[in-house]
Write a structure and sequence with these properties.
It is found in: Rough endoplasmic reticulum membrane. By secondary structure, this protein is mostly helical. The chain is 70% helix and 0% strand. α3 packs antiparallel against α4.
Length: 131
């Protein structure tokens, strides 16, 4: 696995995987302790179907992931990697290739958020008491 990680980081010029900045490490811990436990719960809710209670956790999950990905994508686009210990993207093309690897991790949570906010099945219907 170490060789695979080294090969990925070298091929796609992703120094964050070999020497992650402190803020990136914080995102990794959030993923390990908050996002990964969400997956089995979400899988259960979506496979079972009709589970409207998944709406709020899915909104929290998707906004959190999208927020972290905006920071990662901005780092890829604007950071000066020439000072990194490991080789990072230098040209715009290399930055866009690396960006394309991370982009699905933004698009899927945004699709989930859109589904939770716009799909009528998941919209909260307020029940009124009759007097």
């Amino acid at each position: 696995l170490t060789d695979l990680l080294q090969q990925y980081a070298t091929s796609f010029r992703d120094p964050m995987m070999l020497q992650p900045p402190e803020w990136f490490k914080a995102f990794i811990y959030c993923e390990a302790f908050l996002q990964l436990p969400f997956f089995p719960v979400a899988a259960y809710a979506f496979l079972k179907g009709g589970c409207r209670w998944i709406r709020t956790p899915a909104i929290i999950y998707s906004t959190h992931v999208a927020t972290t990905l905006f920071a990662i994508l901005a780092h890829i686009l604007f950071h000066d990697f020439s000072k990194s210990e490991h080789v990072g993207p230098q040209s715009l093309r290399e930055r866009l290739v690396l960006l394309s690897i991370y982009l699905p991790y933004l698009l899927i949570p945004l699709l989930l958020l859109f589904t939770m906010l716009c799909n009528p099945h998941y919209k909260h219907v307020e029940k009124r008491k009759r007097k």
